[in-house]
Amino acid sequence: ATVGQLYHEYSIEKVARIEGDAQTLKSANTYTNKQVNALEQKTNQQLQHEATARIEGDAQTLKSANTYTNKQVNALEQKNNQQLQHEATARIEG
Predict the structure, then answer these.
(1) HSE-up of residue 85 (Cα within 13 Å, Cβ side)
(2) I need a labelling partner for 89 at 20 to 30 A (CA). Which of 8, 18, 22, 73 fits?
(3) pLDDT of the residue at 94
(4) Residue 2: phi, psi to the nearest 5?
């Protein structure tokens, strides 16, 4: 092989290596982008699920707290009304 032939083969190999590296990089980037997008989508779904569960849980907690408070207020109101009625009766009967 002459120097010219060796230089020509070297040039062909160099171009092939550069093109191969470019294809490998493109393939790696495509794979990485797909993985990142899948992870982002999964994370967004999980966050949405958590937010929905939290909102529903907060609503249930608030409903329970309101029910408890209303029962306590009603019981206190009934007790006060009974005491006032008893006091009024005692004053009238005096």
Answers:
(1) 6
(2) 73
(3) 79
(4) -85, 170
Give pLDDT tens digits for 19-44.
999 999 999 999 999 999 999 999 99
Helix (H, G, I), strand (E, B) or coil at 9: helix
Give the DSSP per-residue string, 41-60: HHHHHHHHHHHHHHHHHHHH
Structure tokens given for 69: 């408070």
Predicted TM-score (pTM) of the model is 0.57
What confidence category does residue 87 fall into, taking pLDDT thresholds of 50, 70 and 90?
very high
Kind plus residue range of the DSSP H or E element containing 24:
helix 3-93
Distance CA 62, CA 81 (A): 28
For residue 57, pLDDT beyond 90: yes
Query: Any idea which residue has 């040039």 for tokens?
Result: 11
What gap in Å lies between CA 49 and CA 55, rounded to an integer? 10
Q: Any idea what DSSP says for residue 1? A: -
